[in-house]
Amino acid sequence: MAENGPLKVALLGAGVVGSQVARVLLAEGDTLESRVGRRLELVGIGVRREGIERAGIDSSLFTTDSMGLVTRGDIDVVIEVIGGIEPARSLVLAAMRSGASVITANKALLAQDMAKLSATANDNEVDLYYEAAVAGAIPIIRPLRESLVGDEIRAVMGIVNGTTNYILDKMTTASLSFEEALQQAQDLGFAEADPTADVEGHDAAAKAAILAGLAFHTDVRQSDVFCEGITSVTADDIAAADAMGCVVKLLAITKLTNDDEPRVIVKVHPTMVPKTHPLASVSGAFNAIFVDSRDAGQLMFLGAGAGGAPTASAVMGDVVTAARNRLRGSAAHVQTGYMKREVAPIGDATARYYISFDVEDRPGVLAACATVFARHNVSLQTVQQSYLEGLERRDGFAARLGVMTHEASETDLAGVLAELAEASFVGTGVNYMRVEGS
Ligand SMILES: NC(=O)C1=CN([C@@H]2O[C@H](COP(=O)(O)OP(=O)(O)OC[C@H]3O[C@@H](n4cnc5c(N)ncnc54)[C@H](O)[C@@H]3O)[C@@H](O)[C@H]2O)C=CC1
Ligand SMILES: N[C@@H](CC=O)C(=O)O
Ligand code: NA
């Protein structure tokens, strides 16, 4: 950084988020200067292909030599919004080794390599900020990393993927098909380049890993996260949830086990949430994160979790912070992974469950079902029986049971499901969904 000269910023990626970040950097120069105390100069934008026009961005800034851009030696801040593992990983590491602070929105990379990235930032005395990586515009990384670091987090539960929340919401409130709702989410710029990452839960799993690592001061990777997406959620599941006073949400959940040496539970799955819970009313592409801590109690963070402008807002907050640190000659050294907690297997996680299945309509069947649940330590909260008519009435199974359980472990649930699947008085197709929140 030249004395009194501008701080030099390099941007990698000019897609949905990157082109918006570039526009803010170019259009809001005076405002940003007043907030940082020094001009921010966008010196180059690494792109995959040149020759593509982006409105409001001077094409002379584009270069296909992203590595050359970040290693030229005079860059103060590198913003990585390419996504994916490579070449983003090599570029980010090279940028930090060349003395630049890094801002990234890349949860996939962070959830794979957080320990290495943090260590590289610390070794090179540069900043690594990533507010945009979880829940877009919503400030959640900084609250966990700074504001709540003196407290004890008990649980974090959130809607952290805008695309899937949009799809589930449109399937529920506008009777759109899964495919129609996904297409709309893609058109609106919420979905990942490959929307499989959204609908299969991988994007939420990456965010869950980052949240769990921050909440419990340990290393958690995406591969540690139990993950089920929303591709098998049907209109019938949504209707069943509605009948039970619930909505279906894809939740990322992390909490600790009650052991002497608590282990981390971290999971993503479609969840029935009671309509009275604050997360139930989070609609469209909005995200929300519910944090339960020892001293602060329950906190709810709500807002836009995806889209170019909201995500650029989070990126720019980090850019200004890193630029201010730069001027002070300091970096936010962050100690990560110092608790070395184990991640518990999914079998040890607990939840309530809603299980529905068809049964023969004859004396003793209800008692036999109750015995199956009891044998596996799963206590019943409510049982509803409805009669099947017409085409629904298959192979003599004339009634459908909808069972809401008390909290039980996944291992015990698996025992119940296996036994129901084998029982002669139970029809094929036992459905279940986890239930969280009260
Ligand atoms: N779109 C959203 O709402 C949000 C996105 N994010 C994250 O932000 C990042 C960017 O997302 P989007 O802008 O939506 O993706 P995008 O796919 O619209 O943009 C990525 C851009 O990077 C370019 N690119 C690929 N390889 C490159 C290379 N070697 N050098 C330079 N550019 C290269 C692509 O051509 C593309 O234009 C991802 O990590 C994503 O997970 C985070 C929060 C919200
Ligand atoms: N594809 C993601 C974008 C933000 O991280 C989403 O839908 O939430
Ligand atoms: Na955020």
TrEMBL record:
Q: Which Gene3D superfamilies match?
A: 3.30.70.260, Dihydrodipicolinate Reductase, domain 2, NAD(P)-binding Rossmann-like Domain
Where on the tree of life does the source sit, at the highest rank? Answer: Bacteria
Enzyme superclass (EC): oxidoreductase
Catalytic residue list: K207 (proton donor)
> Where would one find coiled-coil regions in this protein?
none
Q: Where does L-homoserine bind?
A: E192
**Pathway in which the depicted protein is active:** Amino-acid biosynthesis; L-methionine biosynthesis via de novo pathway; L-homoserine from L-aspartate: step 3/3; Amino-acid biosynthesis; L-threonine biosynthesis; L-threonine from L-aspartate: step 3/5
User: In its UniProt entry, what is this protein called?
Assistant: Homoserine dehydrogenase
Q: Where is the ACT domain?
A: 354-435
What keywords tag this UniProt record? Amino-acid biosynthesis, Methionine biosynthesis, NADP, Oxidoreductase, Sodium, Threonine biosynthesis
Describe the function of this protein. Answer: Catalyzes the conversion of L-aspartate-beta-semialdehyde (L-Asa) to L-homoserine (L-Hse), the third step in the biosynthesis of threonine and methionine from aspartate.
